[in-house]
Amino acid sequence: ETTFESSNQISSLMSSNFRQISEIQKDLDSESAIISYTFGRIGGFVSLIKNNSIEIIPLNIGKLEIENKIRSLNNSAKNFKIPFRFDRSLEVYEIIFKPLEPYIKDIKNFYILDSDLKNLHPAILISHIEDSNNSSDYENLLKANWLIKDYSFARIFPISGLKKNISFDEKFLGIGNPVSIEDIKLPLLMDT
Q1: 176: which residues sit within 8 A by CB, 6+ positions away?
Q2: What stretch of H or E contains 31?
Q3: Nearest 5 degrees, angle CA 5-CA 116-CA 162?
Q4: Which of 53, 60, 75, 113 yields a CA-CA distance of 20 to 30 A from 28?
């Protein structure tokens, strides 16, 4: 029995059942990790689970403040009539992802598990941008260092022990060409 398994206080920090996480941890390769964010009124932490270790990293921001920043960022990503908030994207990255960097030297794949940040997709975060104030949105889109250039992300939603219908009669494959593509001045993909 590990220290985490024998201590209810420590294992309660993990937002999902620790025994399930221990099983998943065994299957992680050296380039993959599980992350889960938990926030309280005045602070939070991120749980970083790698194949050989578990780290609990404190974050100095409360739930309401990070939710407001994410809401502002998401609004700029969804509404093409207003400029994308590159400054907010970088700010959110520095708050929630940069504290992980000392622990993730070889990690390239992240599984986001049962997190308080359900409204944030890491694809809209940037880790660096050169002088975004004097450039157009289009130029900023091209020169920003998007987090997804260096890492892949997948969101995992825990399934409870209840029996669920896991077989389906119909198959579905969705492929799309967004109608908003002209709004961001990208070429149309006519044959898709």
Answers
A1: none
A2: none
A3: 60
A4: 60
- The closest alpha carbon to 103, from 53, 60, 152, 61, belongs to 53
Among 161, 69, 73, 153, smallest CA distance to 115 is for 153
Helix (H, G, I), strand (E, B) or coil at 88: helix
CB 148 within 8 A of CB 122: yes
User: How far are the Cα atoms of 12, 66, 93, 187 from residue 54, in angstroms, in the given order?
Assistant: 14, 24, 21, 44
**Tokens read off for 107:** 């990690």
**0.85 cut: is pTM over it?**
no
Q: Are 38 and 15 in contact (CB under 8 A)?
A: yes
**Cβ atoms of residues 50 and 24 within 8 Å:** no
CA distances from 8 to 4, 11, 162 (A): 8, 5, 24
How many other CB atoms are found less than 10 A from the CB of residue 16?
Answer: 17
Tens digit of pLDDT for each residue in 85-135?
999 999 999 999 999 999 999 999 999 987 788 889 888 999 998 876 677
Coil, strand, or helix at residue 186? coil
Neighbours of 174 (CB within 10 A): 4
DSSP bridge partners of 38? 45
Q: Is residue 18 a contact partner of residue 5, using CB atoms and an 8 Å limit?
A: yes
